[in-house]
Amino acid sequence: MDEEYDLIVLGTGLKECILSGLLSVERLKVLHMDRNDYYGGAAASLNLNQLWRKFRGQEKPPAFLGSSKDYNVDMVPKFMMANGALVRVLVHTDVTKYLLFKAVDGSFVYKQGKIYKVPSNDVEAVKSTLMGLFEKRRARNFFIFVQSYDEEDSRTHEGMDLRTISTKELFSKYGLDDNTIDFVGHSLALHRDDRFLLEPALDTVKRVKLYAESMARFQGGSPYIYPLYGLGELPQAFARLSAVHGGTYMLGKPDCKVRRVGKVVRAICFMSHPIPNTDDIDSVQIILPQKQLGRRSDMYVFCCSHSHNVAPRGKYIAFVSAEVETDAPEAELEPGLALLGLIDERIIDIYDMYEPVNESSLDNCFISKSYDPTTHFESTVKDVLAMYTRITGKILDLSVDLSAASAAED
């Protein structure tokens, strides 16, 4: 390459497209190299023919599924918190002008073999059977504390330093039982396992506040939004942004040395009905907390349909995802698959998770981590923003006014 660049970004696709867009806006001259010959990498959205070719070789998709071009099947399905970091990045970079979003209809949690809607407002909270009457009162006191908590105002701290006390100690102060702790920690704070209980409580409080703020943005049935036509729209939008600001893309190039740190197993399921017991909604997330399954980490169910232009009308795409913990990965998904009802077609995808082993401060080569099994973007964006800080030495200011941004459709 004759041309000189400030840095080279390599990796798995979507994260790097976001990072390249951010850096190009900062006037850095970026060369983005990807091992694939298309944008999006591991996070691409495929039509039906592409999906079958990837997993079934020469076999053709069954005719009853409908037209291939009507499908946009995400390889890494994730919803976006409506008030979360990714939406703030989209607004900060003005990438929203390239995209259309729609709210996700519902969020559910698995408890003792059944699924329950995560309450979206006070009325639903009172009616919810997730908690008994007395537990609801204790939980209400906890939520009042969280909603009023201001890190800079000691009057809202109730004598506690959330940077030093553990989350378990905070829950104990409000007398929350194990089921409520499971619900709050995994469905609202979106922790993947129970390690958070021994960590400082501040992070969990911030996560629960984010959930509530995201719920309030669109007054819908969940705190999540999702792009029309699938997540494949995101890397293309950020690649366009980078190109506008002088970024260069070279596809089909190798990436740097990494090490495997685990595996993810995911079932891609095609159905002719919504997920049972979800009020027949068209898009939904269900979180199965690890303790409910006797696992070390959570399991996730993601479902979308024609409402977000990813499948023909009357067809639904559901994903069940988990980190592999045994030598029988597909069998691990059974609790999630059992929630789906009749499945027309099912594809199993098992992939390795990697993390970089190079020292970026020495070789100026920046590589992201692989995508985890979560069906939301919080951990993904956290990785991108950490890379941004390592590269620029700055913390990206995401304190943008989201009220003025049209990040979702009505």
From TrEMBL:
Stored PANTHER family: RAB GDP DISSOCIATION INHIBITOR, RAB GDP-DISSOCIATION INHIBITOR
Assigned GO CC terms: apoplast; cytoplasm
Role this protein plays: Regulates the GDP/GTP exchange reaction of most RAB proteins by inhibiting the dissociation of GDP from them, and the subsequent binding of GTP.
Organism of derivation: Ceratodon purpureus (Fire moss)
The protein's name: Guanosine nucleotide diphosphate dissociation inhibitor
Annotated family: Belongs to the Rab GDI family.
Name of a matching Pfam family: GDI
GO biological process: protein transport; small GTPase-mediated signal transduction; vesicle-mediated transport
Superkingdom in the source lineage: Eukaryota
One Gene Ontology molecular-function label: Rab GDP-dissociation inhibitor activity
